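Weekly modeling sync, notes
Attendees: S.R. (lead), two postdocs, one rotation student

Agenda item 3: backlog of single-chain predictions. S.R. asked that every request posted to the team notebook include the full sequence so nobody has to chase files. The rotation student volunteered to paste the first one in as an example of the format we agreed on. Action items at the bottom.

Example entry:
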Amino acid sequence: MNFTVQHTSKKARAGVLNTDHGDILTPIFMPVGTLGAVKGVPFDVLHNDIKAQIILGNTYHLYLRPGAEILKSAGGLHGFNGWNKPILTDSGGYQVYSLSKIRKITEDGVVFQSHIDGSRHYFTPENVIEMQRAIGADIVMAFDECTPYPADKNYAQKSMKLTHLWLERCYTHFQKTNPYYGAEQGLFPIVQGSVYEDLREQSARFVKQFDCPGYAIGGLSVGEPAETMYKITEQVCDILPSNKPRYLMGVGTPANIIRCIGYGIDMFDCVMPTRNGRNAMIFTRNGIMNMRNKKWESDFSPIEENSPLQIDKTTSKSYLRHLFVAGEMLGPILASIHNLAFYLRLIGEAREAIINGNYETWAVEAEKQTMIRL
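Predicted structure, as returned to the notebook:
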């Protein structure tokens, strides 16, 4: 797994990450496919219309169903779902954070109850790596604790040290095991430390000691102010290796992504395009629309006139509003496709601006436009 920075515009980078399932042009946005599927979006649409280069799966959810044995029998998630491009899997650390009422964290691992049937399970750094071997993702994440916000400094420091301890165990287990299906896998450590700059510096310097093909920044976009997220992101990017990809986990809005590319982030994921799309929120180059609003009732203009996406040209705002008001399942599907295509198109524009050397000028205007409420 190799990463090459091809162009820069101050701190922003355009590069390529080579994997055994294909090359990924960066910066990149990765659609979230928690259970091996991006909600409401077929793979041919992801490939041909949205132009997705990589998708995410989630270790916690895939462990519970369909389970490791089914995935092994299918030849991994690629064989199971038919997606033949790169896949990244989250380690389950975020679920440890989000399922706080039904889990218990110890130094050795996490005991948790299934959200499906209440059954008890146990995650350790070692078996999380084993599960990601079974999934066969190209990029696997180290097991971490996603520190909640707000957290006092004492808790944040303990959480960070636990993440570091688990990283050492993940790295050791990863090094002494092999992929199941012949395709190379790469382990990404995760920087934690909450909103405390000294902890973030410690964590970034700790993880960069491990020779890995990329590094992630976790524990942001969990409720802290956007300006705090930006400050921490820039700080950590300045510490992490310049010749490896940097992945900002769970971020974010179009404006968040534009800003953080400028700090040197290469990879993003977020449920926002599909989750918000299912709830009638549409992102466009001219701003954000709530498609349930009555103002669109008699607006027969296309969803987004300058979009190359066919459904954007042929679907009117009035019709899309009608689908949502009527409870027709096509509404959330079209909105999800539109939003994902918009995110990938926006990040493609960002890449072109970096290649042209004018990213900062482009970003200022693009960030303003995408934040307008229509």
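Discussion: group reviewed the output briefly. The chain has a mean pLDDT of 96.
Action items: rotation student to repeat for the remaining queue; S.R. to check formatting next week.
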